[in-house]
């Protein structure tokens, strides 16, 4: 089924949106892209979600089909991305949220503002720590982005977080990443610079207000946002669960059919289960240097 497309004006930006309608659905879920990605990155995820829910996809103002509708003269902040997400939640009357990778920053910032409509959220391929593998990846990425080395950026992604992708997906990934506009690389560079230099807005204390159930999903082969690192969120969030996808890296359901089936089972099982009345006691809050995506 082809989606209904529209450009929605929200938080001073024009955002390309795609709405996949499910006639039998009573709930709507919005998906939040990772960095340098577009709505196309959720093609595998939409296949199983749209059988149960209305699904909303969107491109950030600087990316994909949104960038033609914006000036893109300077990078936008993750706080801006969170406000855009909150506006889309209201516009589409969204009940559930799912983010991938770097999209977890905007997602958690938005959830920390306790949007009344959101009942549950899934945060995938995300960790509260900058481990050695992620720091090495980000450090190399800054250099390629600063020099606008398109080919270098494409190879870096495929050789690191994308190393478990099938060869066809790697070719598509490289073609997409190496053909972006300069302002998209500048956007990514600005965010990584904040993260690496510990000037990040997203500290664990901002998560204290999240009261809805959250599911964190990570691949067991993902050394950049590792499952054991993601479990640290349990110290700071009232109601959270964790799922590990076997034989999967950072890109989860894009990597092979088995991971796709596991993701489908984990997400639908979580979203379609009534929330528990009991919640774990949160441990004392602390700060982290940055959120790794």
TrEMBL record:
Residue stretches making up the AB hydrolase-1 domain: 28-256
Pfam families xrefs: Abhydrolase_1
TM region positions: none
GO molecular function: hydrolase activity
Keywords associated with the record: Hydrolase
Protein name per Swiss-Prot or TrEMBL: Alpha/beta hydrolase
Record lineage: Bacteria, Pseudomonadati, Pseudomonadota, Gammaproteobacteria, Pseudomonadales
